[in-house]
Amino acid sequence: xxxxxxxxxxxWMIILWVVIIGAGIWVLASLFPRTNSSPPAGHHNxxxxxxxxxxxxxxxxxxxYETIRFELDx
Length: 74
Known about the structure:
By secondary structure, the protein is mainly α. It is built from three helices and no strands. The protein folds into two domains: 1-34; 41-74, no CATH class. Helix content is 76%, strand content 0%.
């Protein structure tokens, strides 16, 4: 008779630990969300504006400008 009660308590203890660990993972995932590795939506336009500014100030040659612009457009 004692074996049945211990088995039922063990199942509830396992369920309790699964819930506790799951809640802990959920809290950690909420605190530290994954970051998206792609640049923000306006990033390309910002980069292009910086590139055009550097070219306009004479910091880049035409070849350098075209090479960098080609890389940004890829």
